[in-house]
Design a protein that fits this description.
305 residues, alpha+beta, Sulfite Oxidase, Chain A, domain 2, 7-stranded mixed beta sheet, 5-stranded mixed beta sheet, 8 helices, 13% helix, 26% strand, disordered N terminus, binds the ligand Nc1nc2c(c(=O)[nH]1)N[C@H]1C(S)=C(S)[C@@H](COP(=O)(O)O)O[C@H]1N2, binds molybdenum atom
Amino acid sequence: MSAPKPSEITPEPLYRRRREFLKQSIGIGLFAATGKASALVLPRGPFPRRDEADGEKVTPWKYATTYNNFYEFGTDKEDPAENARRLRTDSWSVTVEGECERPGTLALEDLVRPHALEERIYRLRCVEGWSMVIPWLGFPLAALIKRFRPTSKAKYVVFETLYDPEQMPGQRWPILEWPYVEGLRMDEALHPLTILAVGMYGKVLPNQNGAPLRLVVPWKYGFKSIKSIVRIRFQERQPVTTWMRAAPREYGFYANVNPHVDHPRWSQKKERRIGEFFKRDTLMFNGYAEEVAHLYRGMDLGKYF
Ligand SMILES: Nc1nc2c(c(=O)[nH]1)N[C@H]1C(S)=C(S)[C@@H](COP(=O)(O)O)O[C@H]1N2
Ligand SMILES: [Mo]
């Protein structure tokens, strides 16, 4: 529904020789790889490509970058924009491990470089009852997963955020169990709507939005879209995620957006789009039912919430 048609995806080379990159440095460099042979640059702008998708306006950048949930940097909505400044996202690496044939620790550049970046305008619906429309720059998680050759035992994919209380002051307090952990069933992880994002609004991801690498799963509540990922693990057993551990009656593993299953403490029937005054109806699977409902056929979504 929101996924761009292949014809809309930039065919442009994403990697240029460093010299070329420097010549064209008006473009935004994601990796100005010092001393390296190549640098990743984002697809050519202008961005966002469109300012609406499914007839819905993209949320202004200002809201998307100043009204955030990122508990590692504080629990107030304004905290991440202020405190995430101190996060150092250069020389970032990601460990891929568990049930796969090619585990390893890769520099972020090496993890991302093989993938063509696309713009995807997705609704993001927080379990708290607000939502935004964000133009992400990323690539399908499925493409990354395939590179590591998961074994037949790989039933789930688990993600972890950086743990570094020096840089992430929220981790000095036991608000949640750190590091933040999320997970997907393998078929959810391989679904074409599921992406890893490295940018938004045509720019490198702001720290408060999960730089340098975050998950985006648009049909699930926002908390599944884990930020600042340092570890990806394939495993046979369903993981216990951070929010399940914090409040198992309130947050389930699946966390599919579902207006028919209320949170124990509030209704999920409506949401407020940030920047708008009136509430709107929340849609089943956040409006992506056509694409994803088949993943849950036969499951009791009241039980598997
Ligand atoms: N590591 C980590 N990832 C996280 C969170 C968090 O606190 N820590 N908050 C989640 C929640 S509740 C939401 S709604 C989205 C918000 O993403 P945004 O700030 O980019 O809109 O990030 C999710 N990812
Ligand atoms: Mo959220």
